[in-house]
Amino acid sequence: SAVELLQRETDRLAAKMEKQSQGYARTKERLEGDLARGHRKYRTGEVRRLNEEVRGQQEAARLLRAKVSEGEDAAGQKEQHRQQLRLQLCASQQQVRSQAESISRLTSDLEAVKAASHKVEAEHWRQHSPSEQTAAREREAEVTALAERAVRDEAGQRQAAEMAGHAELVLALEEDLKEAAACALSHQESAAIFKQKYAVAMEKARRLQGQADRLEEELRYAQQQLRDSRLATSAGEAELCELEGRYREKSGQWESSQEALGQLTDELRANQGLLRASQGRAGQCEGLVAALRLQTRRSHQDGERLSLLTDELRQLREVKPGGASKEKSDLERSLVASHRNHLTASGQQEQEVTRLAKEVTRLKLELTNSQIRSAHIDQMQEELRGRWAEELRTARREAERLGQEAEAGRAEVQRLQEALGREEGAAKESQGLKALAGQLSRQLEELRVQHRQT
Are 125 and 136 in contact, with CB atoms under 8 Å apart? Predict the structure, then answer.
């Protein structure tokens, strides 16, 4: 019954270990599937989030490009207005130069007229009277005054025209400066707002960079823990395989021990049968010894009676020396035959007693050896049962420990996978924010360049 119980316990442990191995395999497949689904889900969500971020950034870039194009259009209009002003200024300058040339021509003509007039007047002066000369000198003075007045008027007109042109140019330049100042102010306000947004984004990027660095450190630590957990799981699986190998080896040893135990049991049964047969033979021999002892006592009694008869015969010989010889001889022969028979029977009985005593001693020795062997076999059976029971208890405890370690390893792997997913998401978000900060930096630099150009 103990052997059957041990065999049932062994079968139960083997089934339990096989079930645990299948459970480990199913759990591993489930974890791998969950990990793959998590990666796919994470990639899908991350791609969707990145697409949304890209669309938002594209929309922001479109708005910025629209603003830049508006600024470029305004700058083009201003440049066109400046070109028009330059053209008007050039035309005014050309007109002033032409007026100056005409004035210079008129002045030269006037000088020529004056010279001719002086010649005529001088000639006339020499030919006419002093009164006429005086009148001529007065007319000449009047002409000179008129010429000077005409020159002054032309100079004033030219100066007025130049001042009017300069005033218009100054007004236009003031309008341009006002518009440029307003545009520069709007650009400065936009740049200040953008700088503020950029500073906020950079601060957020720095914070996220710190978080990303910390998360990367935690990610490396989690990955190291995950690798350690996988190594521990692999070591546990290897240990489980080793335990299964040891279990199979122990099962083989158990089967061989069962065979040896069966042989010992058969030998014990045979020895017990021999022991019972030896006990029966010993009882028979003891009965024979008792019967032979009884016969020996009877033989001793017959010997004593024969001695008595011999003594009586000797006495009769002494009393009747000349008695009947025939009776005497018959009696002597009968006594001698009785004595010989008694000696023969006594010798045979003593030999039989000696043989039976040796047989009894041998049977007792065999009985003792059989009892010792039976006790040794019982002790071996008890030792084997105890040893296998202890090994089975150890194997059960080891299997339970490995099961608990495997459960803990699965829980740790699941926790690390969740932490890894969260940290990878944070790292992706940090990378997206870094890209956004870089894009904002480039846009700010472009705005600065455009502002310097305008």
Answer: yes
Contact 348, 288 (CB under 8 A): no
The tens digit of pLDDT for each residue in 148-183 reads: 666 666 665 566 566 556 556 656 666 766 676 676
N-term to C-term CA, the chain: 105
> What pTM does this model have?
0.32
Residues 12-19, mean pLDDT to the nearest whole number: 71
Overall residue count recorded for the chain in this entry: 454
Residue 310 in tokens: 């011999």
Spatial CA neighbour of 209 closest among 431, 425, 46, 49: 431
321 assigned to some structural domain: no
In a domain, 334, yes or no: yes
Q: How many domains does the chain have?
A: 1
Tokens 């089934």 -> residue:
15
What domain range is 153 assigned to?
2-316+326-453
Q: Is residue 201 part of a domain?
A: yes
Beta-carbon neighbour count of residue 155 at 10 Å?
11
| 434 in a structural domain | yes
